[in-house]
């Protein structure tokens, strides 16, 4: 093969490999490390990423950013196929009865089939509203699977923590209630 | 008249077969729909989320939906990523056209390279040797004459 042709082919191959490598790095850096859960793990308290999702009951949508500054928020990622979500939803429903007038409780039904999710809410007597994140993009920005994932957002819109152990629930509820 | 009747009976008998051929099958759809939590198709997953979608597909097949209607309902709920093959519109088109474009480009480059290689080769060196030394030539003639004699 002539020298210019060989050089062009080599340059194209190097550019292709460099492009694929850049894509890989971009994916790792932009999607994994910037998620809310990963920031919390590093001791940071990021501003809650905004989302605007349709309500599960079909009555309009909820814009998380519009709640900022008004009330602290408990954000619960769940799905009807998630067995541990049942217990967490019951605990949050009990907390909603106690704190519901001062703290906003919002469920995010994720990677789930909406009709099944509505039936699941009725079956388990969930009293707080939920939005539908069918493709799971919002969940990814908050840390991804597994669920349930429950986050606590103070009145200023900062994420103060994620529920890891049972004792976190009353502790974080008191913290954001006082914010 | 009897032939007409027989043709009508055969046609009626074939209608259910044709309808069955058009009916979507769970097995086929399981290979074309992704499990939203495991990154595999439904037929390779045993997760509760995959079972949930399978139940939905079974219900829709029983209700008489077409394959496209079932896929449309799944995309409306889960987004385009629920289908194993990328969509034929928007950004998804890249996944269909880039490999084809790559093959065409590679074939073009290969053809051009071969054409260029075949047209830029230097001609092979002539096999004829240098003219003989006159003394050697003369001696060769003498040898040949003696041989003929």
Q: What would you say this structure looks like, in words?
A:
The complex is a heterodimer of chains A (179) and B (149). Chain A is α/β, with parallel strands linked by helices and 179 residues long. Chain A has one domain: Glutaredoxin (3-Layer(aba) Sandwich), CATH 3.40.30. In chain A, 46% of the residues lie in helices and 18% in strands. Chain A contains 7 helices and 7 strands. Chain A has helices at residues 3-32, 36-41, 64-67, 84-99, 114-123, 137-142, 168-177; strands at 52-54, 61-63, 73-78, 104-110, 130-133, 149-153, 159-162. In chain A, the strands form 2 sheets. Chain A has a 5-stranded mixed sheet with strand order 5-4-3-6-7. Chain A has a two-stranded antiparallel sheet with strand order 1-2. Chain A starts with a helix and ends with a helix. The model of chain A has no long low-confidence stretch (mean pLDDT 92). Chain B is mostly helical. Chain B has a domain at 24-109: Cytochrome C biogenesis protein (Helicase, Ruva Protein, domain 3, Orthogonal Bundle), CATH 1.10.8. Helices cover 66% and strands 0% of the residues of chain B. Chain B has 6 helices and no strands. The longest helix of chain B is centred in the C-terminal third of the chain and has 29 residues, at 92-120. Chains A and B meet through loops of A and helix 3 and helix 5 of B.
């Amino acid at each position: 093969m002539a020298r210019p042709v060989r050089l062009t082919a080599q340059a194209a191959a190097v550019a292709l490999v460099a492009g694929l490598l850049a894509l890989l790095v971009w994916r790792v850096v932009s999607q994994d490390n910037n998620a809310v859960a990963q920031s919390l793990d590093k001791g940071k308290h990021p501003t809650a990423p905004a989302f605007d999702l349709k309500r599960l009951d079909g009555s309009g949508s909820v814009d998380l950013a519009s709640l900022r500054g008004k009330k602290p928020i408990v954000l619960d990622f769940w799905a009807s196929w998630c067995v541990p979500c049942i217990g967490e939803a019951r605990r949050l429903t009990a907390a909603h009865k106690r704190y519901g007038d001062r703290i906003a409780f919002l469920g995010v039904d994720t990677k789930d089939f909406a009709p099944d999710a509505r039936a699941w809410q009725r079956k388990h007597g969930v009293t707080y509203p939920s939005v539908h994140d069918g493709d799971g993009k919002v969940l990814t920005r908050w840390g991804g699977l597994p669920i349930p994932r429950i986050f606590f957002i103070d009145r200023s819109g900062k994420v103060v923590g994620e529920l890891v152990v049972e004792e976190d629930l009353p502790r974080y509820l008191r913290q954001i209630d006082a914010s | 008249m009897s032939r007409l009747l027989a043709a009508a009976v055969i046609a009626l008998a074939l209608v259910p077969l044709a309808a069955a051929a058009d009916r979507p099958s769970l097995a086929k759809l399981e290979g074309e729909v992704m499990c939203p939590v495991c990154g595999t198709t439904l037929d390779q997953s045993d997760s509760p989320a995959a079972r949930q979608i399978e139940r939905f597909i079974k219900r829709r097949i029983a209700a008489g939906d077409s394959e496209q209607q079932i896929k449309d309902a799944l995309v409306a709920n889960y987004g385009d990523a629920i289908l194993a093959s990328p969509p034929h519109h928007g950004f998804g088109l890249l996944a269909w056209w880039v490999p084809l474009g790559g093959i065409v480009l590679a074939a073009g480059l290969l053809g051009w390279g071969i054409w260029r290689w075949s047209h830029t080769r230097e001609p092979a060196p002539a096999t004829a040797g240098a003219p003989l030394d006159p003394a050697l030539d003369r001696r060769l003639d003498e040898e040949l004459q003696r041989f003929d004699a």
